[in-house]
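Input:
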Amino acid sequence: MSLTILAVDDSRTMRDMIRMALMPAGFTVHLADDGIHGIEVLEGIDPDAIITDINMPRMDGFGFIDAVRDQADHRATPILVLTTESSPELKMRAREAGATGWIVKPFDPAKLVKALQMVAG
Amino acid sequence: MSDQNDPMAEIRASFFIECEELLEALQDGLQELDDGSEDPETINVVFRAVHSIKGGAGAFGLEALVRFAHRYETVMDEVRNGNMHPDSEAMKLFFLAADHVSDLVRACRDEAPLPEETSKELLARLDELLGEQGIEEEEEASADDFQPLGVAFSLDLPDMDAGPETGRYTIRFKPEQELFATGNEPQMLLKNLCALGEAQVNCVTTDLPDLDGLAPETTYIEWLIDLETEAAEPEIRDIFEFVDGLCMLEVTGGPDGPTPKGEGTPDDTPPVETAAPDPVTPDATPAPEPEAAAKPDKVVEMKRGPAENSKDGGDAEPRKAAAPAPKSVVRVDLERIERLVNLVGELVINQAMLSQSLDEAGLSPHSDAMNGLEEFQRLTRDIQDSVMMIRAQPVKSLFQRMSRIVRESSAAVEKEVRLLTEGEATEVDKTVIERLSDPLTHMIRNSVDHGLETPDERAAAGKPKAGTVTLTAAHRSGRVIIEIADDGAGINREKVFQVAVKKGLVAPDAQLSDTEIDNLLFLPGFSTASQVSSLSGRGVGMDVVKTSIQSLGGRISITSEKGKGTTFSISLPLTLAVLDGMVVNVAGETLVLPLNVVVETLSLGADDVQMLRPGSYVVRVRGGFVPLYDLGVMLGYRSQRKTDAGAIVLLISLEDGNRAALVIDGIQDQRQVVIKGLDDSFYRAPGIAAATILGDGQIALILDPADIIAGVGNPRGGDFMLSERKIANE
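Output:
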């Protein structure tokens, strides 16, 4: 099944990797460089799920999740946090901000696809 | 570089390019911090740079890089959180660590041996900075972080190794309010659960109030699932990992254990039979809608309320157009641009050919062909400018490399040195930047090693203990000027002279001006260091620097003031490819002069020329006098003419302020010429910068006016060619 995904990450490499992981699975992938850009991109699309990095310039992942959840349309859109940090505090913070789940970098493409299907399939 | 067909290799290659950018940002950030910036965003930038490098490195399994970047990041995180204030010692370590990250990145990229010793040493120093507590946290975190797990939770389907033993589980699941706030959806969880095996899902609706009592966004129901599966309990729990703590979850039963009947299952709840969907594509089968089937509609309504999912029905919707891309950047192999530049060069030559043959055909300047040619010329120029812009790059990366050289060389000679940079945004052709790296490195080392005094000497001279090296880049009249200035003691001219005498480079009784003495430094084999230090003595002298600058079509000069410091000034062409030239005739030869140095053309009257002394003339231009040189004589094409009256003169002005008048026989044209370098197989003739191919296929030499004037011995400096000749005679 084809899902539309918005992936927000300030690292070009990571964006490339996400795209490469998701495109073969038939996903439609939209990319953004940071939280603010993510919100801008979100205006034109209606993703089934969102993936976001935490450490980003201008608006970080927490701020981005907050902003997404503030939009009535996206109160329940699944948001996965993609992060190298796996500390329980970080997960707590992500969850408090409204993240649906988290994926620890480096990620395995097949597992990323599965995780997305699990929350948005 | 990368296998074009392998997307992974491509991403890997682009990762290393990104690393370069991140390293640049890292250096900038550290520099700002070092300069006393208190902006938290600066620390953030530094943190993120290291963090992103680590993230990418992890994706490509570059473990050494990940390990080091992680520790570095941890320290930066401490700084970011305000737990640590970096003092100057810490800043030094941060810089070293940044240098090391850059080494690691390069080693990984080139698959070269990793500098493990340095890694160890720096890791130890970072640990020291973190203190004990930091390390403890660190160990824990790294153990957690860096197993190449991929995802933190296992989404694997029943594992064959675990044995295909079927077990029966009873799962009790009651979502809490917060579950919905995080975008989790019980339906998805149940679906994933069903995918594990044969499941019977029962919805417990006993807590469900009447419609009137319904509070939206409140949870009233729980589910009881009987699951027959080959999966083990952890797998079942993994499904609920994201909602751990956001729901009540009980998993009982297992492969061996008796299957507890769901005691909590109220009889009035109709059981829902669900077949396990295809485990690989759980979505292919019509998803079981336990709630929908099991509950009154209002329940579904209620559940959907808070968890209203925008995807519903969205799959059939046509996909919307891609979001506007951020400013898109194409990364291109330099070779391809190189080819384009060459082609443009050919185009310029071709256009010159065409223009020449149309000229010879004697067409009217108003003919269509001539108009078309004009348009063609304009387009050629535009294309050429655009191509050059592709290759233009700010000198920033080069300057950053130099800051590292300063750090390393100052540490080696135990001096404290600050590097100031100006004009980092100045753009220069990429090739020029690359080829400048070695000469600049050498000159920076020189400044640190020879230019600056020791801290004690500086203190004695009433200067701050830390020396300053200033690196400046600027555009000036179509060229790039790069200056390396130190605030050291200046050139010790007596010593330079003595050394030169000792080495037999000049006669002991030679009378040399200050400039001439300074220029002795550029002589092959000259070194003022009485002892070969670890920095100098790499077999490279200033003569090599000079040669490499000249091979770039550049010039180098020195100015020095005793006690104040020394400045090396490099002047370079903006590009190595095309030049706006003035094509002139001298003694039957065709020559090209860079157009940007030509101020005006004059026709000489007999009264305009004054003789200073035999063989040395000046010409009166607008009330001033400018030295007059006959190009034909200087280049050895002809001997001195009796009178210069009536001759055509080009007044040239150089970026160093020198002016001169050059006698020529005629002006042919003003046009773009393609610079063809004269490689090493030719003797480097003073005054000749390069060659070009004209429209008729003829080869013409491109002159370097500054070099020509210097070669003649201009009273205002740049006497190197003269002294060289003098020395050769002696």
